[in-house]
Amino acid sequence: MATLEIQGLTKTYGQLKALDNVNLTVQEGELMAVLGPSGSGKSTLVRSIAGFVAPDAGHILLGGRDITFERPEKRNTAMVFQSYALWPHMTVLQNITYGLKLRRLSPEEIARKVEWALDLVDLSGLEGRYPRQLSGGQQQRVALARALVVDPEILLLDEPLSNLDAKIRYRLRFEIKKLQKRLNITTIYITHDQEEALSIADSVVLLKDGKVLQAGRPEEIYSNPKNSFVAEFLGASNVITDLVLQDREGLYVMLGGARLPVPAYKQPGEEVSIVIRADEVELGGEMPEGDHEHVSFSGKVNDQMYLGSRRRYEIETVEGHSLLIDSDRELPTGSVIRLCVDRDKIYIY
Amino acid sequence: MTGVKATKWWRAMILKLVIITILGFAIFGPLAGTLLWSFAIKWYWPSALPQEFGLKYWANALTGRSQVLDALWLSISIALIVVAVGLLVSIPAGYALARFDVPWKKVLLVLFLMPQAFPQLPVFINMSSIFYRLNIAGTVAGVTAAHLVVSLVYSVWITTATFKSIPEVLEDAAINLGASRVGAFFKITLPLAAPGLIASAIFVFLNSLDEFTGTFFVGAPYIQTLPILMYTASMGYNMQAASVIAIMLTIPSLVFMAILERFLKAEYIRGLGV
Ligand SMILES: Nc1ncnc2c1ncn2[C@@H]1O[C@H](COP(=O)(O)OP(=O)(O)OP(=O)(O)O)[C@@H](O)[C@H]1O
Ligand SMILES: [Mg+2]
Predict the structure, then answer these.
(1) How many CB pairs under 8 A join A and B?
(2) φ, ψ (nearest 5 deg) of residue A241
(3) pTM for this predicted structure
(4) What is the C-alpha to C-alpha distance for residues A256 and A55, in angstroms, rounded to an integer?
(5) What is the rounded CA–CA span in Å between residue A274 and residue A239?
(6) Is ligand 1 within 6 A of the CB of residue A18?
(7) Would you tell me which residues 187-216 of chain B have a C-beta closer than 8 angstroms to some C-beta of chain A?
């Protein structure tokens, strides 16, 4: 268990910057989720921590020790690959035992640790099976056991659940989290699923084009996205672009007849993004007089979709923007309604 | 409904039987003829069966200081050397071609294929003239080299494809847990490549055992392998001797298959897609 520090890590492939001056710190026992779209450099980041990618610049410190140029087999990191990378010619037991044998432990100790690991991931009884005789979820747990049994200083998970269907993914996500807390192991968890990242991480890093766009606690990054990309990536379904207007009182943009102030760094006539989350708007709500906490605007119900626990409405504003809003209220299509949203929940970039 | 199914089933069954019968005749017809010939003393045309049966030619081939047995051992020895050298070359070459950015990779692979692109005869005639200059014509080394040139093409290609089909991430996983690159190769990659390597070795072995043209041009008249001996016998209209040799040539293949079947785990055979 150790703190991981990454300083100015850069990796280029020809013209392409897979990692661009990445700085990160993962505290001891912390689970950091690295979130980003495909090709953003997530795998390159963990592969350089594991030692499979040689960075062009920067340093990687694990527990204070500089491992930037250490050979991968000497680093004591443990990686769980997206494809699990279980060895198909070995049984579950042989897969899990391999790392321990390389460490030249005594047979008794190996047996003890293997039992501990099998118990940890709830795989006892399956030790004699070959990987192809296991379900996807079981294979995933074997990969986890194989990684944890060697007592690594850091656990690297590269999209560990992306090959599983939604239900198992949902369950395993919490199992991994519980395990990680129980063992208090420093962990990097790569995913491109924002919900997964927010729900299990102690801290979240958002990567794009090899750059860290934003890092912080999940609540922090969710409620204060730095730009429209982060906001959209964290699940905001409405990103509206319009032009900045100006009057005596300053810069503004119109939404549903309401006036929204625009940050001062913008120019009049410039494009501005308004970001609103589908579940943070109240439909049909009337705002009390003199309320400055909320913004009220109007729109017309264009279409709707029944989602079980709620309905998703497509609302058109007078400016011609269309918004997706989730609500449990029932409203007829075609009706004109008022919408009400917390001022803090409208992001303008 | 069931009636339709039944007729379909019958049709499929009959089709299968017809195909199996045709295949059986195609494979075993010539073999049966050869087998009959090897036990014949007299067989004059147009009789359907030999007039006189006997073990004379088998006895000739298998007892005493027999030319046939000498040729058999020579053939097997050459084939084994070709397999060994072939594996020693094609495993590192195939691994390097599959895993690393070898410069001129495509050119190299095409160069390897070159001898195969031309008709065999001119290739071997050229080879024999080169081998004469190198003083290895008419020697076991020369014949082995000729066989290697032919079989390396296949074995390097098969080996490269085999290593390519094994995901590199499996090696990464081993290295990540503390294995050296070499350790990961021997413990992970090699066992997984075994079916492909064995397939290529069988191919090379049988190919060398049967090889005629190269042996003839490079080795004659000093190197008498089984196929050369068979050729000589059949040229002298000694069909019985030629048939005995032909059957002996098929025996190593059968033995090889039987041994393989015993030693290969079921998974490996499944890995071959059989
Ligand atoms: N060996 C390589 N050679 C050249 N380019 C590479 C190499 N490995 C990665 N890249 C490039 O670097 C960029 C980052 O790749 P990386 O695999 O880290 O992305 P990722 O965030 O893991 O994406 P995904 O979510 O699809 O797994 C991509 O544009 C990729 O094409
Ligand atoms: Mg990736």
Answers:
(1) 60
(2) -110, 140
(3) 0.83
(4) 50
(5) 6
(6) yes
(7) 187-188, 191-192
The closest residue, in CA terms, to atom 24 on ligand 1 is A38
Ligand 1 centroid to Cα of residue A35, in Å, is 14
Residue A199: Cβ-neighbour burial (10 angstroms; 0-12, 13-18, 19+): middle
Considering only the top CATH level, what class is B58-271?
mainly alpha
DSSP 8-state symbol, A3: -
What is the A39 CA–ligand 2 centroid distance (Å)?
Answer: 7
Q: For residue B25, is pLDDT > 80?
A: no
Using CA atoms, how far apart are residues A261 and A251, in angstroms rounded to an integer? 6
**Could you tell me which chain A residue has the CA closest to the CA of B168?**
A85
CA distance B179 to chain A (A): 6
Phi, psi dihedral angles at A287 (to 5 degrees): -90, 130
pLDDT in tens, A128-175: 999 999 999 999 999 999 999 999 999 999 999 998 888 888 889 999
Task: Tell the residue nearest (CA) to atom 12 of ligand 1.
Answer: A18
> Taking the domains of chain B in order of start, what are their residue ranges?
2-38, 58-271
* 8 Å CB contact of B178 and A102: yes
List, as ranges, residues 53-72 from A with C-beta within 8 Å of B.
Answer: 72
Q: Is the Cβ atom of A44 under 6 angstroms away from ligand 1?
A: yes
A150 and B177: CB-CB below 8 Å?
yes
Please give the pLDDT value at position B273: 44
Q: Do B173 and A72 touch (CB under 8 A)?
A: no
Phi, then psi, of A270 in degrees rounded to 5: -80, 160
Tokens standing for B81?
Answer: 């050397």
Do A314 and A304 meet the contact criterion of CB atoms below 8 Å apart? yes
Mutate to test the pocket of ligand 1, among A9, A11, A13, A196 (most ligand atoms within 8 A of CB): A13
- pLDDT at residue B122 greater than cutoff 90: no
Residues 6+ apart with CB under 8 A from B200: B86, B90, B154, B155, B158, B159, B162
Amino acid making up residue B246: A
The DSSP-derived string for A148-187 is HTT--SEEEEESTTTTS-HHHHHHHHHHHHHHHHHHT-EE
Sheet order of strands, A211-216 included: A77-80, A154-158, A186-191, A31-35, A203-208, A211-216
Helices (H), chain B: 2-38, 56-62, 67-99, 105-117, 120-133, 140-164, 168-176, 181-184, 190-210, 213-219, 226-235, 239-263, 266-271
Task: Kindly give the parts of chain A with pLDDT less than 70.
Answer: 1, 285-287
Q: Tell me the HSE value of A211 on the side-chain side, using a 13 A CA sphere.
A: 6
CB B12 within 8 A of CB B25: no
Q: Give B173's DSSP letter.
A: H
User: B167, A83: Cβ pair inside 8 Å?
Assistant: yes
- Please tell me whether the interface predicted TM-score (ipTM) of this complex is above 0.90: no
Contacts of A206 (CB under 8 A, 6+ apart): A35, A36, A212, A213, A214, A215, A221, A230, A233, A234
A 10 A CB-CB count for A266 gives 17
